[in-house]
Amino acid sequence: MTVSGTGFHSLTTEVHDHHPTVEGSIPDWLSGTLIRNGPARFEVGDCRVNHWFDGLAMLRRYAFDDGLLRYSNRFLRTDAYAEAMDGRLTGQFGTDTRGWRRLLEIIPSLGVPDPTDNANVHVAHIDGEYVALTEAPRRVAFDPETLETRGRFRFHDDLPEHITAAHFVDDPHRDELVGFATQFGRRPQYHLYRLPAGCRTREVIASIDANGPAYIHDCSVTANHVIIVESPLVLSVFQALNPFAEGAIDMLDWQPERDTRVLVVNRNTGDVVADPTFEPAFTFHHVNAYVDGGTIVLDLVAFPNGDIVDTMSLSELDGNGFPDVPDAHLMRYRINPDSNTVNRTRLYDGAMEMPRVARSVVGRRHRYVYGQVTDRTGANGLVKVDCKTGTAKEWWKRSVYIEEPVPVQHPDADTEDEGVVLATALNTQRERTELMIFDAATLEVQARAVLPHAEPFGFHGRFFQNV
């Protein structure tokens, strides 16, 4: 995996409805808004945060209408933001300056640090609200037009959660979001749940006893299943009791003597239909899943171990060279519920991350996977993997760092790849960020919009057609 230190600078400038210069032509049919989330400020007073995950959350808005583009960016005005403006860093993933005072908070809460509301990972549309998400159980509502912070978003239920999913699976076929939460205690559990459209009461699909429990970042669905992958990257409550711990990152403990377990749960009954195990591996991001006859197919991006989390500390990312991080690979897991076994194959020879499929095929058989190519020197590229033919198309250019690609289908699309792929890209040579629009079939560049500043690397985003 290669990264650029330029992508980890602080951005403090905010703009509203800026009309960027566009090279090329934005399709007239592209109507809606891409909202991305990510860290943007890494310094508090004289202190620089320890980890990429700890930068203060900034929303970025790219609104398309009749071939035109408007751009806005704004920090979330959260408790974490206010404390940072006062020079305090508390409760972040890898940065916490409370020392012994943390014991007063984490012992009553089963070892879990006081949750931050620095919701810098993802966004979702829940019951009419637009919500910024992180893995701590505090969510923040915002205005999708102005990006102004509206305050804390709360579900209308009492589902226990100490760590929660920042990735919801948005299933358009069942018109619901699917997520999960991890509960600590004498009997740690994963709570898998659905959230029907127009509702903010989560319905529990299943509560499963956890081994570890593990740090789980993402999940997948098929038409009839929810799937999580429990790696041996364990969340150790005892390690969090150290008063000199830097944050939640110190709860993570790679235990390679454990196996990786794939949990396949029936969405309708809550029954565990398969839980095969295999040698240690770690995954941040799933691609998609579907049923093929009697087999459950799960595509995801897998690392050989959990070292990637530590390697994203800013002490590594700010260095002159690139961190020595094992590459992640696009893998296909074919799970046989009858024999409770899993067969794994690699779908793409290169290394990749931030995988996405078209929304219309979520939970259904997909052919194409778009992702960020991560094994180029001095660049990140874009790749489109054809899972049917085993071939791939790539686009990359030296000094250009492509972020998460977001496929958007044409409203009258007949095929999965009829439309565009939206991706922000940091050009380190020109010290600017561009929003790039690729043809989803060919990866040819249709347009690029030059933003008014260089954005720090963000995480995830969604395209909302009605904003």
Keywords:
467 residues; mainly beta; Methylamine Dehydrogenase, Chain H; five-stranded antiparallel sheet
How is this structure best described in words?
By secondary structure, this protein is mainly β. The protein has one domain: Methylamine Dehydrogenase, Chain H (7 Propeller). Helices cover 5% and strands 43% of the residues. The strands form nine sheets. Strands 2, 32, 33, 34, 35 and 36 form a six-stranded antiparallel β-sheet that branches. Strands 1-7-6-3-37 form a five-stranded antiparallel β-sheet, with helices on one face. Strands 12, 13, 14, 15 and 16 form a five-stranded antiparallel β-sheet that branches. It is globular and about 55 Å long. About 3% of the residues have low confidence. One of its GO terms (molecular function) is carotenoid dioxygenase activity. It comes from Natrinema hispanicum. Its cofactor is Fe(2+). It holds the Pfam family RPE65. This is Carotenoid cleavage dioxygenase.
Query: What's the average pLDDT?
Result: 90
Topology, number of strands? 37
Q: Give the helix/strand class.
A: mainly beta
Instruction: Measure the end-to-end span.
Output: 34 Å
Cofactor: Fe(2+)
Organism: Natrinema hispanicum
Family: Belongs to the carotenoid oxygenase family.
GO molecular function: carotenoid dioxygenase activity; metal ion binding
Gist?
This protein has 467 residues and is mainly β. Strand 6 (56-65) and strand 7 (68-75) form a beta hairpin.
